[in-house]
Structures are given as C-alpha cells and as structure tokens.
Design brief:
two-stranded antiparallel ribbon, 9 strands, 14% strand, globular, binds nicotinamide-adenine-dinucleotide, 7-stranded parallel sheet, alpha/beta, Rossmann fold, 2 domains
Length: 295
C-alpha cells in the first residue's frame, strides 16, 4: 500500500534534509576525530539511512562509524546508554533501548522515521556471548535468555523494517552479524551457536522472500574480534592459557596468521552494503583469517 501523498512528501523532505547535512562525525568518547573515509567511499551513502543494532561498542560501533564516514544517516539502537552521545554528527541518532521490548521497538522506529524519514540499510548486530556451559548443565532460562536477545528481536526488527526498505530508492540492504560458530560450532556454546544458526537461517529466508522487492540480505561470520565488549582481558588470557599460547599467538590463531579488529569488520560490512555487493543476496562470508574447520 502506498503512503498518503502528504506522508510521501514528508518522507521525501526528510530524505532531502539527510542528504544536505554533511561533514565527518567525531567520536565524542574517544576525543579524537575519526579517520576520514577514503576518497572513493566518501559520500557513497549520502541521503541514505541505516539502522545498526548493538552499536554502542565493538563491531556495531565500528559499523556505525564506517557508515557515517560514507555519508549515511545512522540510527544506533543499544541497551547501553553510551549509545546516545557516541558520535557528534547531525546524521547520528543513538537510541537507548532493550531490543527485547516490543513496545520500545515501536517507539524507537517512530523516532527513526521522525528524524530521518525512512530506512535503506539494516545491520542486525546486537548480541551476547554467555559463559561456556555444556548441554547437560544448561538451564532453560539461560537458553531462553540467549534466544531472547540474539534471535527474537531480529525478527521483530525485520518485520518493522520491511515496509520501509521496500521503498528505499537504491533498494534495501540487510547485513546480519552471525558468527563463525554457525559454520564451526564450539563445545560449551550450544545456546549461542544455535541462536546464530537460527538468525542465519532467518536471513536466508528473508533473502528468498524479499528479493522481489529488490532487498538483499547477506550474513557475516566473524571469528574472534578482540577489541569488543565480548572479549575481556581476563577471558582472553584464560583462552590463550587453555591452548598453551601467549595472548599474541592466540589472537592470530588462523590460517593467515592475522588479527581481525572491529574496524576491519566495520569497513567490510559498509562495503557489503555498497555497490560491490549489488548483485549478491543470501551469501555467508566468514571473516576469520581462514579456518580449516570452515574451508
Ligand atoms: N567479538 C567477537 O569475537 C565476535 C565474533 C563473532 C560474532 N560476534 C557477534 O558480533 C556482535 C557484536 O558483538 P561485539 O563482539 O561487538 O560485542 P559487544 O559486547 O562490544 O557489542 C554487543 C552490543 O550489543 C548490545 N546489546 C546486548 N544486549 C542488548 C539488548 N537486549 N538490547 C540492545 N542492545 C543489546 C550491547 O550493549 C553491546 O553494545 C554480536 O552479535 C556477537 O555475537 C562477535
């Protein structure tokens, strides 16, 4: 159903406003200006609106930064109140929200529409990684908590996003941040691995259903991105010790011997949302430095 003409005009005007505001954002918390985007990528998303979930820290924050640098308006929804003042830009709107709260999602979407007038790109990224527990000891409450955060809100958000992305002038795009655990699960992580496998399957079905609307849906499977909230210093040291490695050796425990950081993943996702991936949907990309369990 087409929106009423006055609504269409309001949406068009909001979009124009978005494309007129420009300039590079500054990261308030870290005090330093963010690096400028490269000449070739600067402004590629001018006039477009992106929603990132879980972007108050780690990978989501890096994705928000990469999208702002490319000229997109970015709405960032996270339970951490730090999300609200994270970037100093007229194109940034941080919304503190528990994504498991359906009513709060309605009002967050309303705020997004009022601020920027639409949605072109969606990055489903928010997630938790609970402490390792084997199947025989995992309580149902622990299982449900992981599903309630890593899986369920993504359906709620996709449902709300679809009518908006269907109208995206340059076609809607979705990236889902799943996990290496989908392709190579780990013992002690049944709830996490299952939630990420389920959200991947959700993305594959969305790719099938939404192709007719020109919307493409792709997944990433990162492994061990250490500059994030999931990896504390203690966890890192314990994991390295478990394998008899130093932290430095542990961080590069992949075929290419590289350390993947959130900035790299942010740039990668921004590229997936851009023109290079225009003809690709339903793809799953491991971002792991190469793993013999995945290859
Ligand atoms: N770091 C890694 O090694 C790694 C590897 C593979 C996949 N991932 C995935 O990447 C995504 C981002 O994680 P990260 O590593 O950047 O960790 P992170 O903890 O830095 O970021 C996760 C964000 O999600 C937010 N969040 C959690 N529950 C929420 C809720 N109920 N409502 C709203 N926001 C909520 C957190 O506040 C946080 O800002 C997660 O889905 C994670 O599973 C991470």
């Amino acid at each position: 159903m087409q929106p009423a003409p006055e609504v269409q005009i309001a949406i068009a005007e909001k979009r124009l406003e978005v494309s007129r505001k420009s300039g590079h954002p500054t990261l308030i918390r870290e005090g330093a200006p963010v690096e400028g985007a490269s000449i070739s990528s600067a402004g590629v998303f001018s006039g477009e609106i992106a929603l990132v979930t879980g972007g108050a820290s780690g990978i989501g924050k890096a994705i928000a930064q990469s999208l702002l640098e490319r000229g997109a308006a970015v709405v960032n929804m996270d339970i951490n109140p730090a999300v609200e003042g994270l970037f100093d830009s007229p194109l940034y709107l941080g919304i503190k929200i528990d994504l498991t709260d359906e009513a709060a999602l309605d009002s967050a979407f309303e705020k997004m529409i009022n601020a920027f007038g639409g949605l072109d790109m969606l990055v489903l990224n928010a997630g938790i990684f609970p402490p390792g527990i084997r199947i025989e000891s995992l309580g149902m409450d622990d299982w449900r908590k992981v599903m309630a955060i890593n899986l369920d809100p993504n359906l709620s958000i996709m449902r709300r996003a679809h009518p908006l992305m269907k109208r995206a002038p340059r076609y809607g795009r979705v990236v889902i941040n799943a996990s290496k655990n989908v392709l190579a699960p780990g013992a002690g992580a049944v709830a996490y691995s299952s939630s990420k496998a389920a959200v991947t399957q959700m993305g594959r079905v969305a790719a099938l259903e939404w192709a007719k609307d020109g919307i493409r849906v792709n997944m990433i499977h990162p492994d061990q991105v250490f500059d994030t909230g999931i990896w504390t210093k203690e966890v890192l040291e314990a994991r390295a010790a478990h394998y008899g490695l130093t932290v430095e050796q542990y961080k590069r425990r992949n075929l290419l011997g590289v350390e993947i950081n959130s900035r790299y993943v942010g740039e990668f996702v921004a590229n997936m949302l851009g023109a290079m991936f225009e003809f690709i949907t339903g793809a799953q990309i491991p971002i792991d430095g190469g793993s013999d369990r995945v290859i």
